[in-house]
Amino acid sequence: MTASLVVPPAVLLIGGGLVLPLLQGWLRRVAILVLPLATLYLIWQVPDGIVLAVPFLDYTLALVKGDALSRLFATIFAVMALAGGLFALNQKRTVELSAAFCYAGGAIGVVFAGDLLTVFIFWEMMAIASTLVIWSAGPSARAAGLRYAVIHLLGGVLLMAGITGEIANTGSLAFGKMALDTVPRWLILAGFLVNAAAPPFSSWLPDAYVESSWSGMVFLSAFTTKTAVYVLLRGFPGAELLVYLGLFMVFYGIVYAILENDMRRILAYSIVNQVGFMVTGIGIGTEMALNGAAAHAFAHIIYKALLLMSAGSVLYMTGKRKCTDLGGLFRTMPLTTVCGIIGALSISAFPLTSGFISKSMISEAAGLAHLEVVWYLLAAASAGVFLHAGVKFPWFVFFQKDSGLRPPDPPWNMRAAMLFFAALCLGLGIAPGPLYAILPFAVHFEPYTAPHVVFQLQLLLFSGLAFFLMLGWLQRTLTITLDIDWLYRRLGVVLVRRLDRWVQTLRSGLAAAATHGARGGASWLHRHHGSDGILARTWPTGLMALWTTLILAAYLVLSYW
Amino acid sequence: MDDHWLVRATTIRRLWIAFAVVLVAVVLADLAIEHHPYFGLDGTFGFGAWFGFGSCVVMIVFAKALGAVLKRPDTYYDS
């Protein structure tokens, strides 16, 4: 393969996404399925090293640079585009899938980017495309989409400021492992963390994603946060700060998901939770931890998309999204229920599912690195995942109570997409070899040892026991839980309104003072220059002759003096 | 109207019994296998069971307490 023959995989998917609105009928359906497959083929044609570079100003942009980590992430992004496209075949809004393919293409562009500026270009493309995915859900998503766009543009500004600073400091665009020793590098890290939904910017994710359509959120769950995981893996492996941020995200996701009533927002919080596991792994920074984070991102995209396809099917068939309105759907949606349960078991890292063979690498790495507190917290969090997603999601949506709803399973393409990803969840869990083979480092890890399997079963099953014993405490109510976004969704609004009132008062006060002053001035002028004013009065001619005589007389007298 | 076999009281009782048997079995499995603890506490009998249960109870109680302060009606931002 010579460099000139390489077609950037991102370009195919983005170009395809832009052409998609022009196609109709079967041609459109075929294109939706063929484009990701062709992209997948191109991804595996990218060899190691820089394969496509273009000059830009005084620099050279490495548009396509391959290695194992790039290909791993690009592969799962393309597979996600394929399954998401299949699931969304009957989405009426054309713009959504076009935007979703550009979004996926942007993500693939980032993971093949060989320099910081190329990362930035595709990063911003993702921000725009993902905002369009949210907006395509209609007017109800407008405000949330705008908030989403503002946060991501802010992240983009941080990133750009960092990149320009980095270029000024080092003269290089290179994107590799960076020590956190300069301000620009901290800014780059901050820009990455905004997209990872790290604190204090975690709330944009549950705020915006749930307003997307039944198919939109399937795409949204995959690309933004996982691209952030990729760039953190590439740029900041072993940064200790990430351990603490990751652990915070893990528990933030659990606690907020426990309190949540919207079925898709439960899953949104659990995205933050799962990305927390990955960020912790990146912070630990050993080869096993980094392998674990990468493998977990790969597995996570599949089971999270599966969970959201299951929730999306419920939303598509019932139009309802709150746990309080749902329940008992297992009767008429058996396939959706089973696929949802497989996704829920995978996210909980149940043995024989994909989560088990990936997440346990991160815990094992913490143990081997003698990070005692981290290890215990990760174990507690694993139990917590089963609690908030593994049991809670299927229980409240498909069992719980009889809501009286009797919707059938969704159309064939949605069922096929769910079966595809459910099979992958189980397949990777039963035979992790193919995934381990494409990880960035050689894998020296055996997930299926008797002590490990028994430990995990104890952890999860007793977590399930806690759930059912404390069910009374977990009943859903028609509530939301305030988050950091309260600052700009409520406090900011109140402050702006108050400021507006002050400005209004000040303005009307100034206007009154000005009017008063103008009136006073006008009447003063009128008094002196008005028709009866002393300066405008007409005087008799005799008086003028008298004054002239007097002045002349005075002049005469003075001249003799 | 709800007569699905899965939601009958007898089924639910049987499910609980089966669940209890499985729970006991996975704890007793600790007798048969040798754990390789990293630290110390993680080598105690039935560690996964009591630690998993305990941490879930703590998380639920913490969430409940947080909810008492931060919960609002879901129409909060609509107004």
Characterise the protein shown here:
With 561 residues, chain A is mainly alpha-helical. Chain A has a domain at 237-490. Helix content of chain A is 71%, strand content 3%. Chain A is built from 21 helices and three strands. Chain A has helices at residues 9-19, 25-43, 68-87, 94-112, 116-135, 142-170, 183-195, 204-209, 216-235, 240-259, 263-284, 287-318, 334-347, 354-368, 372-398, 412-430, 433-437, 450-469, 471-474, 486-529, 541-560, and strands at residues 49-56, 59-66, 479-481. A two-stranded antiparallel ribbon of chain A has the order 1-2. In chain A, helix 12 runs antiparallel to helix 14 and helix 13 (334-347) packs antiparallel against helix 15 (372-398). Chain A is elongated and about 135 Å long. Chain B is mostly helical and 79 residues long. Chain B has one domain (5-70). Chain B has helices at 9-32, 47-70, and one strand at 71-73. In chain B, 16% of the residues are buried. At the A-B interface, helix 10, helix 15, helix 18 and strand 3 of A face helix 1, helix 2 and strand 1 of B.
